[in-house]
Input
Amino acid sequence: MAAPAPDHQEVARLKRELEAASRISQALFQLTEVDELVETALRTALDEVDAQAGSVLLADPESQQLIFQYSIGEKPVPRGTGIPWDKGIAGSVFQSGEPAITSDVKQSAHHFAGIDRATGFVTRDMITLPLKRWKGEPIGVLNVLNKRQGRLDEHDLSLLTILSAFAALAIQQARLFEEAKKAEVVDLLGDIGHDLKNLLQPVVSGTWLLQTELDEHFGSLPPADAEKGKATRDSCNDAIGMVQRMTERIHDRVKEIADCVKGLSAPPRFAPCTVADVVDSVLQTLRVLAAEKGVALRTEGLDRLPRIMADERRLYNAFYNLVNNAIPEVLKGGSVTVRGHAEPGNGVILLSVTDTGRGMPPDVRDHLFTARAVSTKKGGTGLGTKIVKDVVDAHKGTITVESQVGVGTTFHVRLPLDPTRAGSPLDLSPR
Output
């Protein structure tokens, strides 16, 4: 009895899957950075099935959340957004380890609508696949949304299953590389932090002794002499206060860098905050550096801003990085200006840091807040930009950049007045 003739459509499908596997493996295993792998895997997935949008979410065991590592589409989900890892279709797939095709999300009782509501994106159909370690434990999920022509189906699932398997293996391999590198760097930062503490302790102790001696000296003066020396005393108190604040900032700075290297971000400590005071503290710290380079530091409109709920320490670090990075780019006679205005009706404040410096070429500017961001400074690590982005994300804000070579650069920061309030940007609470 003759064998049945091969199904040409089936042969074509298998050939397409083999070609896709070849492309995927070549693309993914050339990379060793997790962020690059995630982005490449997601872009490849969307290209293979011709879908409009997608996301890769990786599991965070500490918070028991699925964290958006990368998102592509007209209205992408900001990196760092988290959802409970047992909620929604993504949570169901993560828990079960089984993929899911959702042809119409409106008919699904499991769809987590908070993401669509927060971003304004409308999900029509989707495929969600688990990303698993080689032993089968899940590390996250891959979401692909809205096929451009027709609906996502079993054939698309077959392609994406191959891709997700390669992606999970490649991500695990990259994580092993990163963990090895981080272990060395974190140990080094721990040693540096310890050494800094030891080096700065005499300075801290000295300032307190100096403060005590000044108080005793001026306290013993006759009232007339004390009044004459008031300006000197105030100047000394300001200098002592600056030294004390700077030692605290140095400790915070080392910790922030260490957390950034480890991929950690402590929960923000929100409290009422005056942005003008934060920026003024930053400019006071950097004013000597700016003066040496002939660069003017200015503010506009900050005094008219309302108080916001923010983590003041982390906000300081963000603006310190932005201004400190701008100063070396500005020629003598130029300026760095921090501006602000409020949009009470929208519940946000808009801030900008503008310099009259050299500007960035388009390839650097366009990748500044992506996995392909690089430092253009000699010996630069790019950590400053990541720290700024992490701070803005922690405040449920957004940051964008405009830059033109030879003209200058402006960073635009949009912050909610109260990121802890329901209804604020990226509010994912159920309704």
Summary: Residues 218 and 226 are 6 Å apart (CA to CA). The chain has eleven helices and 13 strands. The chain has two domains: 9-179, 267-431.
